[in-house]
Amino acid sequence: MSAVREYCERHVDSLIETIETLVRLESPSTDKAAVDRCGAALAEIVRAAGANVERIAQRERGDHIIARVSGTGDPVMLLGHFDTVWPVGTLARMPLRHDGDRLHGPGTFDMKAGIAIALCAIEALRATETPHAPIVMMWTTDEEIGSETSRALIEAEAQRCRAVFVLEPALPGGVLKTARKGCGEFELTVHGIAAHAGLDPGKGASAIHELAAQIAAIERLQDLPNGISVNVGVISGGTRANVVAEEARGVIDARAPTREAADRIESAIRSLQPVRTGTRLTLRGGFERPPMERTPASRELFARARAVASSLGRELGEGSAGGGSDGNFTAALGVPTLDGLGAVGDGAHAAHEHVELSSLAWRAALLAGLLAPGDQDGHGKI
Prior knowledge:
The chain is an alpha+beta fold. It contains eleven helices and 18 strands. The protein has helices at about 1-10, 10-25, 30-50, 90-95, 110-125, 150-160, 205-220, 260-270, 295-310, 325-330, 360-370, and strands spanning about 50-55, 65-70, 75-80, 95-100, 100-105, 135-140, 165, 175-180, 180-190, 195, 230-235, 245, 245-255, 280-290, 320, 335-340, 345, 355. The strands form five sheets. The chain has a six-stranded mixed beta sheet, with helices on both faces. A four-stranded antiparallel beta sheet has the order 4-5-18-17. The protein has a four-stranded antiparallel beta sheet with strand order 11-13-9-14. Strand 17 (about 345) and strand 18 form a beta hairpin. Helix 1 crosses helix 5. The longest helix is centred in the N-terminal third of the chain and has 20 residues, at about 110-125. The chain is elongated and about 80 Å long. It starts with a helix and ends in an 11-residue tail after the last helix.
């Protein structure tokens, strides 16, 4: 590990340059042309790191990138995305800038720095001739909007791998993620009966009033002490103040830490019944990301990561996250998954988004150690 660590430290400027190159190529999920420009540059960088690269063409979303590096034994997956939440033009008001130990910019933390860390780790293994497992890199383009076009690809590749390492950002202090909540989104539409609000209010059935009653029922499903959150984040309905509303809708975000809890919440939402005569409900959506739950296999994988970190002179912790990632999919398949191996920093989806430059080299060395075979110092095998 000493040779790998030294390589990462000597080449941290190149790692930073990769981050900056990717960030300058703004890549909002819904702008295929922009995402593909970033993907073309990423593909060239990945090839330069010694990988065989395949671009998986998409009609409406950006093309996904699958890259493979040969090795010995059963393959492992490096997983992440290069789409961001930031529209093209964000760099004009949030430019890339260095501020002491911080590199600021849209997409730095979530998660272009994670991709650069992965590439540095692979380069370190190759440069030091350190044996490693075969590596499958999956860099996708629609994670921020639900992974609709990439999920099947991710799951198909993951099922052939013995472990998945997700390069999403770390929790504060560099803590890894061994659990994530499942994420669901539902759209509840209430259908009522329109009427004049002054002349014939009794002939109407207000969809808005019914939606208000449903929101109160939905709020009662929330159980924050047990990690269950339910939030009606968008509402709309009606046409004019003097018209009894014929239709109203609410969009519901639901989060749950376990599959059992997710199933219970989804069942409760699907069981909602109207309380006002003349109204009816329609519902669509569901839990699109299953919970990433701690398992004996994921605990074993984290123990190995902690041992590798110790060999680098670092303490490593584990935690859980309220948001989901593509690691939720691989974990639900039963493939040991370790998340949060990307950059240390803060501000995902926020104006202060940044990564800590001093953490980059050791995060790359940590990942390289996980990709290398176990040794006799307690690191074990994946």
